[in-house]
Design brief:
Rossmann fold; 3 domains
């Protein structure tokens, strides 16, 4: 392993653990950031990255372990006190004053450096006037540092999401932190804005002398920007090293792109496809055409076409923030498109509520499982049968799904919130099956689960496909896992479809897998194919 600077750590996390009920979000995580470094924190969705950043910034207490900054124990300090030590933090969601200008948002952030009291401001004393002029100069200097001169007098509400992310970064810099915590700074911004982000962060580091710890899913960005990288998986340290070492690490490749077993499944699928053994095209059940979606001002889907035929198994792939979950929400009536149409069996259902779509045959296992944690396992299953008027029919359907998940029978009276992560995912899937859907949409099946748990769960879903003819759409970040069990795949990047076709066809698109998941990691596919 390459050596790091000999300087003492600026930030040190020692065996940090965080427990949420029955879920261990962080498990003895260790991390160091040394002065002047840009350190990356990466890992699959649900690995615990943001939870660790919440612990460092003071918004999440640790269950056990220790976090120190310049030798000071941070655990007793509230977030404001930590900011006073020089720790600045951006969030995944932008929080600004929409009806103030860019400069005025920065002036508000700079106000913590002001010394005038309320009386001095009320009488506009000379000292206050001078101070306000100095703060304005500093705000304008920040605008210049960020390259936002053309927008300085525009309202924040008029700006694109990418510009607002820059403004949020500027507001944090106004606090003059020496240690920057950046949570997915490239999330939701365009490719052009992402390409400009690395030079900007390097310039900020050079101009301010700050040390940076950032979470990011854009692999080209983090590999080109960082000095050192930590990888988390399922709440634990998986690897650390230079970008080159991380790209070559077999455990990291496995965490992102699947186990060797899963890679062999993809290779077998490719061979099956090349021999012409593809499922016959069935009736179109679900179709999205020309769909655009916005969250407030942020466009997250661009002209999406998406089609699911009866009997298919479809993978929907892409990094966090690519728009995968939003496609499922639009399909199941949980989010309305600003343009385009949604059709179910040829009928336009764009305006139908989610409850009506469930009755028509659409099932959805949401990301995060969406269980009722204080209700029992049995009561959660009963909630899935709300479309039936006959209670005996609900019980019959519960008995049916228990055949696929036998462990449930012994846990019917246990509170759902006390189940393990894998058990909760299985329960959420079982509940969705109570209504006997024609199509089951599963959002992030592998989220936070060990590979063996995921493999068993997917084998159960495969049995449902074979025995009941269930049509399946799986949203995933772990590429090989999803590709090994599906017939067709869509690949999304920043809200646009970059690939649509046979799942095995992604074997021939290492440019997508390498650029989006992990630079160099897709070599694992070719190795699996030749095994």
């Amino acid at each position: 392993m390459a050596r790091r600077t000999e300087a003492a750590p600026l930030l040190q996390c020692e065996e940090v653990s965080v427990q949420f009920g029955g879920l261990r979000a962080l498990d003895n995580v260790t991390l160091e950031v040394r002065p002047g470094e840009i350190v990356g924190l990466i890992g699959p969705n649900g690995a615990g990255k943001t939870t660790l950043m919440e612990c460092i910034s003071g918004f999440q207490p640790v269950t056990s372990g220790r976090i120190t900054y310049e030798g000071t124990d941070l655990r007793p300090l509230v977030p404001g006190k930590r900011a006073g030590l020089g720790i600045g933090r951006t969030l995944q969601n932008v929080r600004l004053f929409p009806y103030l200008t860019i400069v005025d948002n920065l002036r508000i952030a700079l106000h913590r450096h002001g010394k005038g009291n309320a009386l001095a401001h009320a009488f506009r004393l000379p000292s206050v006037v001078k101070e306000e002029a100095e703060l304005l100069q500093r705000a304008e200097a920040l605008v210049e540092l960020l390259g936002m001169q053309a927008f300085s007098e525009k309202y924040a509400s008029e700006m694109s999401y990418g510009t607002l992310r820059l403004l949020e970064l500027g507001c944090m810099l106004a606090l003059e932190p020496r240690f920057l915590l950046l949570d997915e700074p490239a999330s939701g911004i365009s490719q052009k804005e992402t390409e400009a982000l690395a030079p900007l962060l390097r310039n900020i580091k050079q101009q301010t002398g700050a040390t940076i710890l950032l979470i990011e899913h854009d692999m080209p960005l983090i590999m080109s920007l960082t000095d050192w990288i930590y990888v988390l998986d399922a709440g634990q340290n998986l690897a650390e090293g230079t970008p080159a070492e991380i790209q070559a690490n077999s455990e990291v490749i496995e965490a992102y792109l699947g186990t060797p077993t899963e890679q062999r499944k993809v290779a077998a699928t490719a061979s099956h496809s090349q021999n012409g053994s593809q499922p016959a095209a069935g009736e179109v059940l679900l179709e999205l055409e020309g769909v655009d979606v916005l969250y407030d001002k942020v466009q997250v889907l661009y002209d999406i076409d998406f089609c699911v035929r009866r009997g298919e198994r479809v993978a929907l792939l892409g990094t966090n923030g690519a728009g995968k979950s939003t496609i499922l929400k639009v399909a199941s009536g949980l989010k309305e498109a600003v343009r385009g149409s949604v059709r179910w069996m040829g009928e336009d259902v764009s305006k139908l509520p989610a409850e009506r779509l469930v009755r028509l045959g659409l099932g959805h296992v949401p990301g995060g499982r969406g269980l009722f944690p204080t209700l029992s396992v049995g009561e959660n299953l009963q909630m899935g049968g709300y479309i039936y008027s006959d209670r005996s029919q609900v019980q019959a359907e519960i008995e049916r799904v228990i055949e696929y998940f036998p462990w449930i029978r012994d846990r019917l009276n246990q509170a759902a919130g006390t189940l393990s992560g894998g058990e909760q995912q299985q329960l959420a899937t079982a509940r969705a099956l109570i209504s006997r859907p024609d199509v089951l949409l599963i959002d992030e099946l592998s989220l936070g689960l060990a590979p063996i748990v995921v493999e068993r769960l997917m084998e159960t879903v495969q049995r449902l496909h074979e025995q009941e003819g269930l049509t399946i759409v799986i949203v995933e970040q772990q590429a090989t896992f999803a590709l090994g069990y599906t017939d067709r795949a869509y690949f999304l990047e920043k809200g646009e479809v970059r690939y649509e076709g046979p799942s095995a066809g992604l074997l021939d698109r290492p440019d997508l897998l390498r650029s989006v998941f992990l630079a160099g990691a897709s070599a694992g596919f070719s190795e699996a194919a030749s095994a």
